[in-house]
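Thread: quick sanity check before group meeting

JM: Hey all, I'm pulling together slides for Thursday and realized we never actually wrote out the predicted structure for the chain we discussed last week. Dropping the sequence here so it's in one place. If anyone has concerns about the input, flag it before I start.
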Amino acid sequence: MQLRADLEVSKIYDVIIIGAGPCGLATAARLRETHPSALFTDEEQARYSWINRNSRLTSVKNYKNGKVKSTSKTSRELDMLVLDSTSASWMTRWNSLFEKLEIQYLRSPMFFHPDPQDRDALLASCNRHEGEELCVQEIAGCVGKEVSKHKKKRKACGKKCPTEVNERERRDYFAPSTKAFARFCTECVERYNLHSMVEQGSVETLDYDFIPGIGLDQRLFTLRTKSKTYLARTVVLAIGGGTPEIPAPFPLSPHPGFSHALQLTSHKAIVPLRIRRLIQTHQPSTVLVIGGGLTSAQVADNLLRRGVSKVYLALRGPLKIKPFDVDLAWMGKWRNTQKAAFWTTEDMQERLEMAKAARGGGSVTPRYAKILRTWMSQGKLEVCTHTKIIGQAWDDESEKWTIGTEPPVVDMPAIDYVVYATGLSSNVETMPLLRSINDKYAIESFGGLPAVTDDLMWRNDVPLFVTGKLAMLQVGPGAGNLEGARLCAERVAWGVMNTLDEIRGGETGCGVGRGCAETFDSHERYVMGVGSKFDGLAIEA
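JM (edit): ok, ran it. Output follows.
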């Protein structure tokens, strides 16, 4: 592969992270953190800290190649870069979408966050700033004490009740405010000195191959944007999702009569200019929202609060109500049982079905369900469940849609505007960014999700790592939320460090780099328990 002469190649980065959202931030912070206590119990953290304090006397065996290396940290800090298509700062797209939808509180509980150092870091941040604004909101209906045994007995549905959350975890089930979470992410960036790491640039192509003319006998990643080329030893794909999904039979090209809720435009408000004019002139306005998840409920509420006369919310199935995007069984006191069953099976198709069952499609929180019922009681909102859009026609003169549904919606008028809240597609087989990787290093995929390694690496010989929803087949159904961002970051960090150790070790003649067991004397091998520890007894007089 020849590099284009008109593009600048400044240096070779150890790691390039594509995406400056929660997944990218969690990964960058974890790569800078030497004591990642957020994923450990008190006992495990004590052991982990002891290992770091006594790194010269301890060792870790690489399960892939069987070689042993010490746990002492290299003094060389990773040379990292983050590329983001939205801006040159962290969390810009995330914050912009929350501002556009006017979301005041997150759906995730307090212990879901990108900081690798402390599980309760977000809670501590809210406590520090208590009184400045309302930082948290209780997530009702998930802690067991709130549902009495008498109410359970009166439930004659015949279905198994959701797993309860342990009462001692009650304090954890609060959701942070949008402002509190944004401030916390800023604190995380400052703590790990990640400010100057982000550059704005949309990666158009990604390739992995030998690069002639640079004096290195190893394959590198080539990342191209419109104005620049970057080289990296490892790459982390932290894009969260893909392109906005536009449901049939609507056109895929931009149209003045519709928009996607997760698409950033020049105007930040969810209400388009044409609808705002109708509201200002006191003319009736009708908007159709398509989607069954929390975003669709937030969009409908936003539109009605802004003065839209009537909103139709179309769902393909029922309106599902649950506190989180996964079933409570995956977050309650029996969550280890669910996760163990998921990780035990090696059939990726079965894992995909388990993840789908745990997520159950789009759902809304009990709080937003109550908001929707309030609008429905006022006659301003009509929720059309089990409804499929089968036809559409746009009239240029009246600037209105005629929508065909199955079953037909009674007395549905002409629609002034359509808003899609249908999520983002995440199909690695069709991502333009991965076209070259798919051609050269094809792997299996299930439902558009890649069957990556346990380290979330594309293949053992291709150090391309994935996070977020793309890692669902390995991490579980929560891979796409904030908990998944931190879990993925932990796996990716170990995978990146092992890969870079092997690359640097190849330069020094040792397969795993600095600290190889072969370089220790007999006394060190005895203390560490490496190989045959009795070799130290065979000392010649």
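AS: nice. Residues 105 and 178 are 5 Å apart (CA to CA). The chain has a mean pLDDT of 82.
JM: adding both to the slides.
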